[in-house]
Amino acid sequence: MADETVEGEPLAGLRIALPETRQLDVLAQMVERRGAETWRCPLVSILDTPDQEAVRAWLGRFNAGAMDDLILLTGEGLRRLSAAAEREGCHEAFVTALAGVRKITRGPKPVNALRELGLKNDLTADEATTDGVIATLREQDLDGRTVGVQLYGEEPNEKLTGFLRQEGAEVDTVAPYVYADESNREQVEALAQGLVRGELDAIAFTSQAQVKRLMDVAKGIGMQSAVVEALNRLLVVAVGPIVADRLAQYSVGVDVMPEESWFMKPMVRALIERLAA
């Protein structure tokens, strides 16, 4: 919470909702020490998929050299695959196979995850979105190639997989993690009600799963339209274009987003710059 020691800081007087889970304390400290008061409401958690057999089977095919390309949509997904390979005793084979395929990344986070394994990507999406990946791959000959796709959570991304098949590629997807509810429903309902009552000045979304959870709960209590209206009245902050696209699906505009580095620290910096302007 904000206190007297942060008066005069760039975010002083701002009450901001934080739906983040994994790095909630880190994000809260970033904004609180700049004067903001926070409403902490972690909306989702990330877990290994319960279908570990499917992950093991995919790793077996990948390590055997069955794929020509691998599309990495998230850094989380690559880290989960790496951890699964470690558990299965095939991590060295996984890294070797990974080094041998063409690696296409959607944004900076999978690039960082590759770097942790001592590897680099081969193609970077024009924009860190599904459309950006598709635009990049339109320039490539995919006919007859087998393309692995590491999915975002359990989202099948039929737009991307459909494009790949249309281009003549075989597609082999893997979903190494799932999103699960984190805050109990009553806490999320309280956040929705607080938004509608005008008790917040801003909200900072760091994943599209957070947006979906809030909207699903709001819909369940008959408040989705009111929450959308409330969000469009306050300052909506998004960590990157994927989150912005999900908000746009609910007709919610984004007021603040980093221009190119889609992480929490640049997001907070963009918020400070917006308020200063």
Automatic annotation (TrEMBL):
Q: Which domain of life is it from?
A: Bacteria
Q: Which organism is it from?
A: Vreelandella halophila
Question: Pfam families, from UniProt?
Answer: HEM4
**Lineage of the native species?**
Bacteria, Pseudomonadati, Pseudomonadota, Gammaproteobacteria, Oceanospirillales
The cross-references to CDD domains, in alphabetical order and at most eight, read: HemD
GO function term, MF aspect, one: uroporphyrinogen-III synthase activity
Gene Ontology biological-process entries: uroporphyrinogen III biosynthetic process
This protein is called what?
A: Uroporphyrinogen-III synthase
Query: Residue limits of the Tetrapyrrole biosynthesis uroporphyrinogen III synthase domain?
Result: 26-260
